[in-house]
Amino acid sequence: MQLLCSLDTLPTDTSKGFQLNDISLLAVNKHDNIHVYLNQCPHRGVPLEWQPDQFLDLDKNFIQCATHGALFRIEDGECIAGPCPGEMLTSIPTKIDQGQIWVNLPST
Ligand code: FES
């Protein structure tokens, strides 16, 4: 596994973008549960954020694609509204250990 960041740099109800081994990732802390996905919309394959580290909708209930507004559940990355319903963000396995977030990146 690879170190992503310290848990305290990702407060609850925030999101953050990362570049690790040339792979673009996003991480969301929802109620102190950490979810990490590839930063790639399943609709067109583009990055999701509308500004750096801004991946959530206004109510912070969903991950929202900036391009066409698809909404993805934070918990499992499934698209529930927009142009690609039922499609999934690619989930990245994570582990929290001693206050650090670790990720298991896909092999390239
Ligand atoms: S590229 Fe994300 S909704 Fe179209």
Outline the structure in words:
The chain has a single domain (2-103), classed as 3-layer Sandwich (Rieske Iron-sulfur Protein), CATH 2.102.10.10. It starts with a strand and ends in a 5-residue tail after the last strand. With 108 residues, the protein is mainly beta. A hairpin with a 2-residue loop joins strand 2 and strand 3. It has a three-stranded antiparallel beta sheet, with no helix packed on it. A three-stranded antiparallel beta sheet has the order 2-3-4, with no helix packed on it. It is 0% helix and 40% strand. It contains no helices and nine strands. FE2/S2 (inorganic) cluster binds next to loops. The site of FE2/S2 (inorganic) cluster has 10 residues, from loops.
Give the second-level CATH assignment, the architecture. 3-layer Sandwich
Distance between the termini: 14 Å
Main sheet: strand order: 1-9-8
Share of helical residues: under 10%
Which CATH first-tier class would you pick? Mainly Beta
Q: Which compounds are bound in this model? A: FE2/S2 (inorganic) cluster
Which whole number gives the mean pLDDT? 96
Coarse shape: globular
